[in-house]
Structure formats: structure tokens, C-alpha cells
Amino acid sequence: MIETLGFFATAWLDPSLFLLTALGTFAGIYIGAIPGLSVTMAASILISFTFKWDVNEALALIAGVYVGGVYGGARTAILLNIPGAPSAIATAIDGYPLAKKGLAGEAIGLSTVMSVIGGLIGVAALAIAAPLIADFAIKFTSRDYMLLGIIGILLVGTLSGESFAKGAFAGALGVMIGMIGLDPMTAETRFTYGSINLMGGVPFVVAMIGFFGVAEALVQLEHVDTAAIKQKVGRIVPSWADVRRYLGLGLKSSGLGTLIGALPGTGGDIAALLAYDQAKRSTKNPDVPFGEGAKEGLIAPETANNAAVGGAFVPMLTLGIPGDAVTAIIIGALYIHGLKPGPLLLTDTPHLFWFIVGNLTLANIFLLIFGLTGIRIFTKVVECPRAILIPLIVILSAVGAYAIQNNPVHITWALAFGVIGYFLKRYGFQVGPIILGVILGPMIDANYRRAMIGAQENIGTFFYDLLSNPISLVLTCALLFMFVTQLPFIKNRKRHR
């Protein structure tokens, strides 16, 4: 117990980790708040700068950015009716009407306090649930990890977009990119086309920077002339009466957000929308109708999307499947430092797990401090022209891609992936499944081949093992269920209902 507390307090007692967590949370608030800058993009760029750091230092900074970024989107949603992040879409519905009534400061303060409550509940769920799931996941075999990898990619494609086919295509494209280079078992070249530069494979950090950073910068070029709206902010710190009055709703929304966040491929945006819908259905007599400045409509999504942060770490740490795009990037950070997320991570490196729990707790404390201060400075940052921000993003992306291996070819790859990502976004494709495919593709390939070796290269034995083992059978049924629910007549029936 004392040893666990020591691991938990690592970031609290080490001055450098303490400051990195504070810096990451502060930066995340502003990155998440500025429309056009995403937490996912920031995390992908940060990995390239931190891959030579100690793993604790890298995680402290990235986790701080994650926690701050999820909350930060609420500020522009309230002040400008422009969600800084997808998870703040529901926040704008009632947050902006509150701002138009002159209650922007009160709305920001209340959303900050409830966000911290949701975040802490999510972290508590992570501390309780992850060890239990890890003990069960140790029983997984190679074929189970193969199925988990496929499910993880398809879940992101299914739940974060309208088209399952486009999501599956994006995931397959990512798997193909992940296969580039030398075959790890036979040393044969794959998809290199005679290029020496491709024999070492494509670093997934380069792909992340290109598909998230550069692609988003190109998308924002279409809105470069959008003028910023100037705002005035009044009182910020909420009254204790308000916090106490809405605490029950906050706790209920936090539980929902944690559960949704723990489902692979979901994330804070889905959690926020479901929590808003739940609050609208369960609130009998709101002081103001929903959509016209109801505080319940502000609190529910904000507590849910921050609670989803802790929930998203549960499948990432225990099963090696990211809960959302940011945890997919954190998986990449762990791989860079020689760690493999999964059930053995908690048993082999328990200090890392409890460090993450303690670090997320500390980040939420800093979120409360920074969230209730600096609002007036923040309004100036929001007004920064996109003509300045976009070149900075491209420059940081290029520097980050080069810094991975000091290879100028990686800059070209990042820019090329950015152009591809831009056109994919224009035609409704998602880039999240691509990155997951790049990261999980080699894992799927390696585990499939191990499973086939175990089945003595007999496809019949392989399928018999899938159906005879309880865990494999459940995962196979889950995979088939995903495909069945995407059949046209099933989807049309659901829409009709």
C-alpha cells in the first residue's frame, strides 16, 4: 500500500514532473480552446519532441495536454458558439445562450468546477477497474489480441463517423501503411518498391503528424479569413449553492461519461452528447428551457467528456486498445519507450500505472486552478488570426517529423500524408482509424501468424480454436455483430425507429 502511494505521488513530489504536468494542462486548455487546433494534433506533435525523454516526463506532459484540451473546447463554445473540440459541441447548445445573457464568466466557472469533478471520478474509475480487467485479460491468446486489434480499428471507424465502409477503408489503409518495411519474421521487403528509405518502415509518429497536424492545417486554410469575435467576461468563480444544486446531475453524468469513455473508439464527444440527452430527458423542471441557457445543459456534457478521459485509459492500459484518438497516440508514446500496453503492463510495471493515475489526478487539480484564472488573457489568444496559427502548425509538424530520426525524408512523408489526409477529410473519411491501423496493424499481423503457427498452419483448426475458446468466441461474435449492425436494411430500420 505504501509502495503504491509512492508511485501515485511520483508526479506530485518530483519538481520537473510537477511542472511538466502544470505546463501541459495550461497549454492543453488553450490548444483545445482555439478552433482549428485539436488535442489529438498537439499530442501527435508532442511525441516527436518527447521520444528521447524519460517515459514519465513524456507522459506527464501529454496527459496534462489531454486533460486540459478536453476542457478547453468549452471556452470557445461558451464565448463564441464555436466548439474548440468535438467534445464541446453539446456544451455550446446552452453555454452560448448563457454568454449572450451576460453570464459567460459564471458559465465558464461552473463548467470548470464540474469538469474537474467529472475528471476525478473518471480517474477513480480507472484506478478501480483497470487492475480487475487486467487480471482477466492475462488469459488472452494471440488470436484474441488479433481480434481485439481488428475490433479497435473498426470501432473507431463505426462510432466516430456515419459511414462504416469509409471507416473500414481508412483502417485498412492504416494497416497497409503499417506493413511497409521488412517482414519481422522473414525479413522480406513489403510495399517498399525498391526504396531504401522505406525498408525501415514508416514511423507512426510521422503518419500521426501528417494526418492530424498538416491535414488539419490545410483544412483550416479554407477558413483563414474568418474574423475573431471580441468578448467581455464578468464574474467567474461559481457560487457554492450552484455547485451543490447540480452535484447530483454531475455525478450521474460522470458515471455515464466514464462508461462511454471506456468503450474502445468512443471518446468525450459521444459521452458529452449522450449525457446532454440524458440530462434533457431526466430534468423535470429546469429554470430555463434546454437550448436557451439551461445550466443543466452545460453541466451534463462538461462532466461527461472529462470523465471520459479516465475511462479511455482503461481499455488502453488493460487491453492495448485505445479509448479514443488521443489514447491511440499515447499507445504510440509507450511503444516508443519500449512498453507494450496490455494486461502485462500492469503486472510488469505497476509503478507506471499508478504514476498515470496520480498524474491524471494532479492534472485535474491544475485544471481547476488554470480554469478559473486567465480568462481575460485567454480571450486575446482566441482572437489570434488563423493566418498566423496555420503556418506555425506546419512548421512545428515539419520540425517534429525531422526530429524523430533526423531524417529529412520524414518531412516529405509528413507533408504527403497531410495532403492525403486533407482530401480524405474533404470526402468524409476519418483519419483516426488510419493511425490506429498504422499502430495496431503490425500487432494484428504478428498475432495472426502466431495463431496460425499454433494451429499448425491449418485454417480449419484456426477457426475451430476461435469457436471453442470462450474468450475468442465472444470476441468473434462481437466482430460479427459490428458487421451485421452495419447492413443497409438494419441501419434503415434503426433510422426509421
Q: Kindly state the mean pLDDT as a whole number?
A: 80
In sequence order, what are the helices and strands, one letter per element?
A: HHHHHHHHHEEHHHHHHHHHHHHHHH
Biggest sheet: strands, sense, closure?
A: 2 strands, antiparallel
In DSSP terms (H or I, runs of 4 or more residues), the helix count works out at 24
Distance between the termini: 51 Å
Domain count: the total is 1
| CA-based shape | globular
- Kindly state the percentage of residues in helix: over 70%
Rg over CA atoms, rounded to whole Å, is 22 Å
Number of strands: 2
Please give a structural write-up.
Strands 1-2 form a two-stranded antiparallel sheet. It has one domain. It has 24 helices and 2 strands. The model has no long low-confidence stretch (mean pLDDT 80). The longest helix has 34 residues. It is an all-alpha fold.
Topology:
Elements: H1 2-8, H2 10-13, H3 15-33, H4 39-50, H5 55-80, H6 89-100, H7 104-137, H8 142-159, H9 164-179, E1 181-182, E2 189-190, H10 204-220, H11 240-245, H12 247-262, H13 268-282, H14 295-319, H15 325-336, H16 343-348, H17 350-371, H18 375-382, H19 386-403, H20 409-426, H21 432-454, H22 459-468, H23 470-484, H24 488-496
Antiparallel strand pairs: 1-2
Key words describing this protein structure:
single chain, mainly alpha, 497 residues, 2 strands
Short description:
74% of the residues lie in helices and 1% in strands. The protein has one domain.
